[in-house]
Amino acid sequence: MQPCEVCGATGVDAGGYCEHCRVHRGAASYSVSPPAGVSPVSDAGAFYYSASPGVAGRASVGAYPAVTSGAPADAGYPPPVAAQPTRSPLAVPLFMLTVIVVVLVAGTVALVLIREQGRTAAQGANASQGASAPAPASSAPVSPSAAPNVAGAVDKCLLGEWTVISWRLPYGSTDGSGGEVATDNGGTIRFRADGTGEWDFGSGVKLVGSGPTRTISVRLTGRMTFSFRTTGQTFEFGEVRADVREEVIDGEKVIYAGAWNPQLGVLQYACAGDVFRWSPGTRYEARLQRRG
């Protein structure tokens, strides 16, 4: 059976009509008896319709009586069955994939924005802290050990150049007795912010003391470098390199002449304004005056 010329369907019912659009596809004419009260149209008793009003493209022959006045168009025809739209099997998966991609992109953008806001807030906080940091203290007197440390290990009260105006050292004599030697001009000391320093004895520093029967004197010449750190009221020497010559005279006799071997270590200290000292009772008791 050839497809219908109107709708393309192939099904035909027992009466010869297309099962889809109801176009007649059987014999060209039929002998029918007109209904009572209806005058037949001539032409061998067949009824013809060139086209049914309101149904485009339908051409039926001899199956139904002519439409009388007042009868609705397409009287006696069953309504045509509308073709159902088909849906692609990929439509739903593609839609879901699109939704997932949109959600992932939105989540990534949100995460980037959150991190950027956090970084901006942290930078703002650091800048605020830097702007509100206190200015360095002036040279006005400060209480001992109250000055903050530079780089976490250096009391900034110490920084600068100092003159040693008082210095005492213990000594031992050749006869086993002991005492101390002292000076009021012990050279120059420099403390730097990086935790390094130097002690310069110049052309010579002389410390003098009196023993039981004679005079003891110690002469130091040269320069010593060192590192240091402060904690609370504790001053600690480190990495001492002494290029210093020592000469010890007991009475009128030179009992030692050679390299100076300083016994440095941990000392107690106090710094206030222009005065610094290594506390009494320590091996190196000294008083320093800030220069300039």
Blueprint of the fold:
Elements: E1 48-49, E2 60-61, H1 91-132, E3 149-150, E4 154-155, E5 160-172, E6 178-183, E7 188-191, E8 196-210, E9 215-231, E10 234-250, E11 253-259, E12 266-272, E13 275-278, E14 285-290
Antiparallel strand pairs: 1-2, 3-4, 5-6, 5-7, 5-14, 7-8, 8-9, 9-10, 10-11, 10-12, 12-13, 13-14
Give a quick set of tags describing it:
292 residues; alpha+beta; Lipocalin; 2 domains; eight-stranded antiparallel barrel; two-stranded antiparallel ribbon
In brief:
The chain has 292 residues and is of the alpha+beta class. Helices cover 14% and strands 36% of the residues.
What does this structure look like?
By secondary structure, the chain is α+β, with helices and mostly antiparallel strands. The protein folds into 2 domains: 1-84, no CATH class; 149-290, Lipocalin. It contains 1 helix and 14 strands; from the N terminus they run E-E-H-E-E-E-E-E-E-E-E-E-E-E-E. It has one helix spanning 91-132; strands at 48-49, 60-61, 149-150, 154-155, 160-172, 178-183, 188-191, 196-210, 215-231, 234-250, 253-259, 266-272, 275-278, 285-290. Strands 5-7-8-9-10-12-13-14 form an 8-stranded antiparallel beta barrel. Strand 5 and strand 6 (178-183) form a beta hairpin. The longest helix is centred in the middle third of the chain and has 42 residues, at 91-132. It is rod-shaped and about 160 Å long.
The shape, in one word, is rod-shaped
Average predicted local confidence, pLDDT: 73
The chain-level structural class is alpha+beta
Number of helices: 1
Q: Estimate percent helicity.
A: 10-25%
Strand order of the largest sheet: 5-7-8-9-10-12-13-14
The CATH topology of the largest domain comes to Lipocalin
User: What Rg do the Cα atoms give?
Assistant: 59 Å
Question: How many individual domains?
Answer: 2
Can you tell me the residue ranges where pLDDT is under 50 for at least 5 consecutive residues? 28-32, 38-75, 131-151
Element-by-element helix/strand order: EEHEEEEEEEEEEEE
| CATH top level class name of the largest domain | Mainly Beta
- Major sheet attributes: 8 strands, antiparallel, barrel
The fraction of residues in strands falls at 35-45%
Number of strands: 14
Termini separation comes to 123 Å
> What is the annotated CATH architecture of the largest domain?
Beta Barrel
